[in-house]
Amino acid sequence: MVFMCKPFSCRSIFQVNPPDVVPSDQVEVDFSDVFGPLPVQPPNEVSNGVSEDLINGHPVITHNQSNSTVGLSALKLHNLTIDDTEYSKKLAEWVINESIKEYQVLSSIGVGEPSVQLDGISMKVRTVGLEDFEVMKLVGKGGFGKVFQVRKKDTSEIYAMKVIRKDKIIEKNHVEYIKAERDILAKIDHPFIVKLRYSFQSLEKLYLVMDFINGGHLVFHLHRHGLFREDLARIYAAEIVSAVCHLHENGIIHRDLKPENILLDSEGHTILTDFGLAKKFENSTRSNTICGTVEYMSPEIILGKGHDQATDWWSVGVLLFEMLTGKPPFTYRNREKVQRKIVKDKLKLPSFLSSEAHSLLKGLLQKDPSRRLGRDAIMKHKWFKAINWKKVEARALRPSFRPEVAGKHCVDNFDKRWTEKPLSDSPVSSPRKSGNFNFFQGFNFVRAEGWVLSP
């Protein structure tokens, strides 16, 4: 379950400089080692039309008592006023997500719903889970789960729900990857990066609820058009560069940039998705993990020499090359051959590209990461001379191509092999049987933007 608060038409909450309100004796206590995991009732019957892929193993939790004073229930925030600031949003998000942590503790000991007190008024939070969503269409499938188009019942908002099987994550030893994906999506707020709205879990599944972007994957339109003109590719590339810069500023490398992980929204802007291989990093550290999609891997990843954020700029170069020519620069039927070509072969650039495009691609696709173009050199490059970067971040540069989208429910830009597929059952084994249920503690999240606590 995840907590959210009732929508409020006013602005955000909390002063910029709230008083120090947390009593010194307020300590977050984790009782899971003493009292065990969440109590589970027999699961509800599967309702008609809802995939068991989504709800299999979802626990029923009973609240025995409300207005508890454990953890945040005793928190008093005095004299807080309405103020629309970035700080207030972050503070609101912190309060709500601390309530989520409290709920996990209270549920484990059979105590009821948490609440927050504002000026002595008890503010209850409302639980949000799978039962709050109506499943509409399957829109994608991967190795660990599926992506569904869903409708939130109380607001009729349309979202994308990524459903991930815990047993597969544990079996492949990818627990840290999925936890990192959730943490990164919860942290990031950028116009060209998909927003995580909620995350929660059942006994057997993890759920990430994000904005539904229905203009189709970049690869879908690239295959349809063959290649993009330089003026269109320039706007796409500028938006991708903006998103990657934001990730790097926040200590994150994506490591899987490719057309399949970029969506177009209804206005034609790019949206970066799928952070399953993303990693937090520090400037002085390097990662030695060999990961990614082979055609987009940098030479340093393939060689296992350690990599940092420069590996993302190589992938941006591959993306740009593919947008301008219709295919990646190094391809072959055999994976090992592709890797050898990436490491050893000279870059071949088609003559129909401009000299400025040649220059940028050569700078991005430098095999030596120390000589590869970085953020400042890329943004100041002559190929981007016509780009106003402030207008890019304000979404003020409109791409010449807009996908055909017939409303927010439209799924026409997704592969019909998924959208026309019936919602089928998929029984899975329970990680709890292997003693691994606690791997995903702290997974639940709600984005506070647009929500406030209500009495």
UniProtKB/TrEMBL annotation:
Record keywords: ATP-binding, Kinase, Nucleotide-binding, Phosphoprotein, Serine/threonine-protein kinase, Transferase
Catalytic activity annotation: L-threonyl-[protein] + ATP = O-phospho-L-threonyl-[protein] + ADP + H(+); L-seryl-[protein] + ATP = O-phospho-L-seryl-[protein] + ADP + H(+)
Domain AGC-kinase C-terminal span(s) in chain numbering: 385-455
GO cellular component assignments: nucleus
A single BP term in Gene Ontology: positive regulation of translation
GO molecular function, one term: ATP binding
Protein's UniProt keywords contain tRNA processing: no
Pfam families, per the entry: Pkinase
E.C. numbers: 2.7.11.1
Signal peptide: none
PROSITE patterns according to UniProt: AGC_KINASE_CTER (PS51285), PROTEIN_KINASE_ATP (PS00107), PROTEIN_KINASE_DOM (PS50011), PROTEIN_KINASE_ST (PS00108)
Record-stated family: Belongs to the protein kinase superfamily. AGC Ser/Thr protein kinase family. S6 kinase subfamily.
Protein known as: non-specific serine/threonine protein kinase
Organism the protein comes from: Ilex paraguariensis
